[in-house]
Please model this.
Amino acid sequence: MASIDFTWLIGGPQGSGVDSGANVFSKVCAEMGYQIFGKREFYSNIKGEHSYFAVRVSDEEIRSNVNDVTLMASFDAETIFRHFNEIPKGCGIIYDSDLDKTTTDEVHTLDNYFKERLHKELESKNKPFTIAGVLEIAKEKGVHLYPVSFRELLSTLAEKTENPKLKGMVRLFNVLAVSLSLGLIKMPLDPLLQSINSIFSKKPQIAEINKQAADFAYDYAKSKFGSFQYALTGNAKRPDTILVQGHFGTSIGKMVSGCRFQSYYPITPASDESVYLESHELLEIQNDRPGSTLVIQTEDEISAMGMMIGAALTGTRSSTSTSGPGFALMTEALGWAGINEVPIVITLYQRSGPSTGLPTRHGQDDLLFAVHAGHGDFPKIVYASGDIEESFYDTGRCFNYADVYQIPVIHMMDKFLSSSVVTCKKFDPQKISIDRGMLLDKVEGEYKRFAFTDDGISPRSRLGLDNGVFWNTGDESDEFGHITEDPQVRIKMMDKRMSRLDLITKKIPDDEQVVSFGIYDFTIISWGSTKGPILDAISMLKKEGINIGFIQIKLIHPFPSDYVKSILKDAKTIIDIEANHSGQLGKIFKQNISREIDYFVLKYTGRGMTSTEIYDSLKKIIENKANKREVLSHGA
Amino acid sequence: MALKLADYKTEVHNDWCPGCGDFGIVNALQMALAEMGIERDKATIFSGIGCSGKTSHFINTYGVHTLHGRVLTFAQGGKLANPEMTVVAVGGDGDGLGIGAGHFVAAGRRNIDMTYIIFDNGVYGLTKGQASPTLKLGEKTKSLPSPNTNYAVNPIGLAVASGFTFVARGYSYDVRHLKDLIIKAVRHKGLSFLDVLQPCPTYNDINTRDWYAGVDLAQESMERHSRIYKLEDSHFDPMVRYDDETEVNEKLSQALIKSLEWGSKIPIGVFYQNEIISQYSTRLTDKIPNYLENPPSKQKISENGLPTTDVSEILDSLRV
Model:
């Protein structure tokens, strides 16, 4: 067991600074040498609805959240109503004592479905429908309560600093909550103040006020709060550690891979990546003049796709970033890129569907859609990353696959990844290679863009290249790219394009296709962001002497059937874990290697899986107490 | 060696109907390219879907035959990534003003330096003559089961309202005039739009070549005269001369009013031109100073298979 495994949760209305509070907390813990896994949950709303951030802190590597919260910092009533049950015995809640009498009906953002469940619980325990009521339940369970009046804190601070404006500054509640927490767990004060400095580096006056509030609340917690059994006093720093947000892997990956054109239409949770790329559009290039990423916000996703293809035809590494609804609009042009053998990368940050679905929540619902996207038969690659660090290197791979095989690549990401904040090993750009395949720098003699070749891949000219004139069309075409309906040419062209699928599974190294974390009697198959919670659950079981195997399938289309079949030959029971309703990878698995999935562990609440949940269901499976289909539901 | 008109023609068999107005447009385009002496490998013709979509295959430059309604998106992407290239996008009126109308408006707002030519014949030819967005309300071309129930879109008016900075109309049977218009459009600094009236001899039996020539008017008045007349012959000044709101508004309004003229007299020529509004590339160089010298397609991204982009500053800022 890790000696430190601590989860801190902060909640509040959207727009009240929950995110920046969590960022400060994460930064402080990371600066003190701890490993961090944080995740943000929020409604499709600008201001007012409940959002929360759970940050898990450990001295060992962690890749997921757990169910239990060690310390909750709340400055509004809703956070307490929604999360009080997540805090177990011996753990703590810091809360605003002014809220004691607040009733559930006074919190307008508490929906009736939730209220009904909560009222039932309160009634059964004979408690009033108030904050005091739920906190009594917590207290009876053995949870430590740390009440403090946030308004009084501000009043005292206003008097102390002779700055009456501070009195009503509710914007400081988040900093107070963070600082009270850090004081309680005995974290040193300095990194907190530094972190505030760096966040408000452009607004020194605001930084000053925040620092005063932080200092004051920190001391208050140290002197006034009772004891707490958990302390985070610092850990040996690991070298080359970075603290990253979910979209940093693909965005910095795109810069390094030489992506110089990104067109996009705003959509959650994908647009953060494009905005980040644009805010870093000027690039430093070794031994050369500055470069740049041209980021274009288009009128819709259809245009984003068309522009990306147009740019890719000039030989520019080009991409877009979108989510399910946007990708749905892109599929016609995806087929165009397919028949014209255009290398493009679509970074698909999935969220919960169908339709608008749960627009700000997690889901791995679009795997089958990505594999089958577009009408007609054409080759494409669907490649899935399991965590943020991996997504950096995978971005490099995706651009190489696109260039080498001259096909569209769909890089599967999701909301679980995009809204995580984690520590990981510093990205190493030198581990990314750049292979542009058969892209030409010059053309001599007669040129045929779609010339028949032994391996089905033709030398590729680009718009504007001397002597490289070619034609493209969405119709079937001849070697020059001119329209043809000749049945014999049709056969040759279809075979040329489709032969690439075999080439891909043959040429891409096995360990880029599938990552095996060991094969045992019980072996998990999964893809994408479930990797983290699965690995954490497996190590929990390992500590109990139970070995569970796991293969992470990264290349999902074309499916590496032979390889998967061979590595799973000694596995007796196959468990498919995915964040969707139908077990989409399981379907692909069965279709390709004619083997049944024995158990499905699925989650489609829109909230990411915790390692606790996976651990629990694996236990049930091993003990032969599980249903064939285990459905997970943790999380507010 | 100077390029000749023949150099811009491909050997691809042209399967347009005999008498199709599209021939005039493709001829004018080839003549314009030859007259401007644009190298074959320095120009790309992007096209949409339908009869007009085949245009790119008949012209011996780079040719990209795209998707229905989406030609402007592909063309803008290509031009943005390689701004040295001459880009002409072509497509039908259904393509550009029906399914692609959103892209038409958005392109106007950007004002990227390229040309868009709409082959305007009032019908969807390749799907057997349904009403297109420019067919007038109540008209019944021969394959419509009943008269058209939609009001017609005004291409010139829409272009002017959307921000196109060069807006003109040509007629496919006046090839020389059309060629001159194409040259003006390509040379214009910004996004130029050409609405080309183009009779569909197979499906549009109303706006025929004879109709444009005024044959029916001749029967009424005993005096034959073409409906088509040239704006430049009527002392119409389309050019925004100085950067002043009144001047711009006046030129915009007169273009819009002129665009409403239809019936016995139909103007062709330049309706509106404004080179004062910044091109998109200027807006880009404001934030990426070397965008034009080192555009996306020209950037060096690797050396010996390794990336040359230096992200150490970003990575250092993330270090804990």
Remarks:
- The first helix of chain A runs from residue 18 to 31.
